[in-house]
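Why do we care about 3D structure at all? Because function follows from shape, and shape follows, mostly, from sequence. That is the central idea of this module. The next example makes it concrete: a single protein chain, its amino acid sequence, and then its structure expressed as tokens.
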Amino acid sequence: MPRVVVESRHSPEDTCTLPHMKKITFEIPDRDERGVSPVIGVILMVAITVILAAVIASFVLGFGDDVSENVQAGADISSTQGDQDGEVTVTWISEGTADHLNISVSGDIDKLSSSDPKTINQVGDTVTFSEDETDTTAGDNPTEITVTVTAVGNGGTRTVVTQDTVTI
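And the structure:
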């Protein structure tokens, strides 16, 4: 088998530099620049932990149970206009969470026979507000009144369930 010999023309003292190579250095940052990211990371982790603990505690200890809910009920307001007198009738049609309903009127109430607030205590019951029969101008000029129905719950909480302006 033939023998191959490789000879080098360069001596070990020769240096080879490549123009595209850059010098890489590892500098230690100043004391003011070190540790900023870890500190922010720790603060964020602590904040997330505190918020998560507060949310879990509110569910476990039942803090959300004290929030009052609106009272719910259904009422219908209907009106009729007659030749001499008109009337507004309010009917309680759905109980919901209400204990009773308070009905009040406002507007041109001096033409009504009674403008005192009224109460409905059971579903299906009605209250009526009518024009004063002794008022001789009642049929000539329409009376515009606003009827407000407020549902009252067992704890005394109140919610306006309907309000309507009617002409009688």
